[in-house]
């Protein structure tokens, strides 16, 4: 049994200190995942806190011996889905209004182009349908294998393969001008 799974057994027994250890260990990965999904740092921070509240509230649902990361990421992904649906129902709030880029201190033409390219990638990823964006973020940014993504998203491994294929195809098309520049 992994260290995280052992901590979850303690959490299931009501050990708040074990939850604190999990929170310290997983805070940054959860926030990173949520930032990529909702494209907003402040919202991601709020959703990360809510994720750990849900871990505590749903501790009885954790299956002893199961991998912790997909279980916890499923909670975070579901919270992100709900928030994105909420935003879509309120047209005055757009994803772009919430998204903020990293303002680096680097200067020069190459740094400006790198920032522009990074923003183009962020924008293209943000425009993906939610199910495709989730699969892509979990695979590319979180480095999760397809089997864990399937557990996290509650779908089959074949569905994950399909989502990744479609997401990468869309990105390839949207970012074609950047690939041509890099090759030139």
UniProtKB/TrEMBL annotation:
<dbReference type="InterPro" id="IPR007627">
    <property type="entry name" value="RNA_pol_sigma70_r2"/>
</dbReference>
<protein>
    <submittedName>
        <fullName>RNA polymerase sigma factor</fullName>
    </submittedName>
</protein>
<keyword id="KW-0804">Transcription</keyword>
<feature type="domain" description="RNA polymerase sigma factor 70 region 4 type 2">
    <location>
        <begin position="119"/>
        <end position="168"/>
    </location>
</feature>
<dbReference type="InterPro" id="IPR013249">
    <property type="entry name" value="RNA_pol_sigma70_r4_t2"/>
</dbReference>
<dbReference type="GO" id="GO:0016987">
    <property type="term" value="F:sigma factor activity"/>
</dbReference>
<keyword id="KW-0238">DNA-binding</keyword>
<dbReference type="InterPro" id="IPR013324">
    <property type="entry name" value="RNA_pol_sigma_r3/r4-like"/>
</dbReference>
<dbReference type="InterPro" id="IPR036388">
    <property type="entry name" value="WH-like_DNA-bd_sf"/>
</dbReference>
<comment type="similarity">
    <text>Belongs to the sigma-70 factor family. ECF subfamily.</text>
</comment>
<dbReference type="Pfam" id="PF08281">
    <property type="entry name" value="Sigma70_r4_2"/>
</dbReference>
<dbReference type="GO" id="GO:0003677">
    <property type="term" value="F:DNA binding"/>
</dbReference>
<dbReference type="InterPro" id="IPR014284">
    <property type="entry name" value="RNA_pol_sigma-70_dom"/>
</dbReference>
<dbReference type="Pfam" id="PF04542">
    <property type="entry name" value="Sigma70_r2"/>
</dbReference>
<feature type="domain" description="RNA polymerase sigma-70 region 2">
    <location>
        <begin position="23"/>
        <end position="85"/>
    </location>
</feature>
<dbReference type="GO" id="GO:0006352">
    <property type="term" value="P:DNA-templated transcription initiation"/>
</dbReference>
<dbReference type="InterPro" id="IPR013325">
    <property type="entry name" value="RNA_pol_sigma_r2"/>
</dbReference>
<dbReference type="InterPro" id="IPR039425">
    <property type="entry name" value="RNA_pol_sigma-70-like"/>
</dbReference>
<keyword id="KW-0731">Sigma factor</keyword>
<keyword id="KW-0805">Transcription regulation</keyword>
